[in-house]
Amino acid sequence: MISAEEHPKKTVAVNGKTMSYVEMGEGEPIIFSRMAIQHLLIYGAISCPI
Fold first, then answer.
1. In whole angstroms, what separates CA 14 from the centre of its chain?
2. Is 21 in contact with 37 (CB distance < 8 Å)?
3. For 47, which DSSP code?
4. Residue 2's pLDDT band (boundaries 50, 70, 90)?
5. Which of 1, 14, 40, 45 gets the most CB atoms within 10 Å of its CB?
6. CA distance 20 to 38
7. φ and ψ at 39, to 5 degrees?
8. Quick one: pLDDT at residue 46?
């Protein structure tokens, strides 16, 4: 579990929507995005593996 005191949540506006994120660690950024199975079928072929 991520502690809110250690890693405060930040927000950013993307295409008119507010998205929350937490910065932690070092190196290249990794973005984890929750999506529905329909999105996986649409974007799965163009998303890069982690």
1. 12
2. no
3. S
4. low
5. 40
6. 22
7. -65, -40
8. 66
Instruction: Decide: 22 and 2 in contact? Cβ < 8 Å.
Output: yes
**Token pair listed for 32:** 């984890």
What pLDDT score does 13 carry? 92
13 three-class SS: strand
Contacts of 12 (CB under 8 A, 6+ apart): 18, 19, 21
The distance of Cα 41 from the centroid of its chain, to the nearest Å, equals: 18
Instruction: Please tell me the number of Cα atoms within 13 Å of 22 on its side-chain side.
Output: 12
Beta bridge partners of 14: 17
Question: Over the stretch 18-48, which tens digit does the pLDDT of each residue have?
Answer: 988 888 888 888 777 666 667 667 766 666 6
